[in-house]
Amino acid sequence: MNQEHSMDEIKAHRHPVLPDAESYRVTAIRFEHDFDTQRSSLALRLWNEKTGGTCSLQFTNPVFNSDPFMELRDAAGLYLMTTTHLHWDTSQQIEVGDWDGGPPLFWAENVEREEGDSHDIGPPK
């Protein structure tokens, strides 16, 4: 699963939950892990640098390439790509990475989007 993808492949397989993910910056991260169920979740609060709007993405059972938290903070934009076309033998069907390149930051089983109030947070500091 640890391979870089071409920009054409990323664009062809964008995840519909945030098709313009390259316009968003991560402003907050929350990671939770339940030791009883062994399930985890990763929530990203995002700010759209073009519109000023915000949203949150909740990822189910993320698998990390490395420690992605600093890379997520520093990413100029993100990509969210579905991986079903790769026919991997894994339940992680979503890949998230830095729009500017480099290896994927993490994979997840599912992602859900919640809209935010554009007045609750501002641009990254």
Question: Structurally, how many domains make up the residues?
Answer: 1
What value does the average pLDDT take?
86
How far apart the termini lie comes to 33 Å
Along the chain, the helix and strand elements come as: HEEEEHEEEE
| Approximate shape | globular
Strand content: 35-45%
- Please, how many helices? 2
Cα gyration radius (Å): 14 Å
Quaternary organisation: single chain
Q: Summarize the biggest pleated sheet.
A: 4 strands, antiparallel
Number of extended strands: 8
Structural class: mainly beta
Low-confidence runs of at least 5 consecutive residues: 117-125
Please state how the strands of the largest beta sheet are arranged side by side.
Answer: 1-2-3-8
Q: Helicity range of the residues?
A: under 10%
Concise structural overview:
By secondary structure, the chain is mainly β. It has helices spanning 7-12, 69-74; strands at 24-34, 39-48, 54-60, 63-64, 78-82, 94-98, 106-108, 110-115. A four-stranded antiparallel sheet has the order 1-2-3-8.
What does this structure look like?
This protein is mainly beta. The protein has one domain (16-110). 10% of the residues lie in helices and 39% in strands. It contains two helices and eight strands, in the order αββββαββββ. It has helices at 7-12, 69-74; strands spanning 24-34, 39-48, 54-60, 63-64, 78-82, 94-98, 106-108, 110-115. A four-stranded antiparallel sheet has the order 1-2-3-8. A hairpin with a 4-residue loop joins strand 1 (24-34) and strand 2.
Please tag this protein with its features.
125 residues; mainly beta; 4-stranded antiparallel sheet; 8 strands; globular
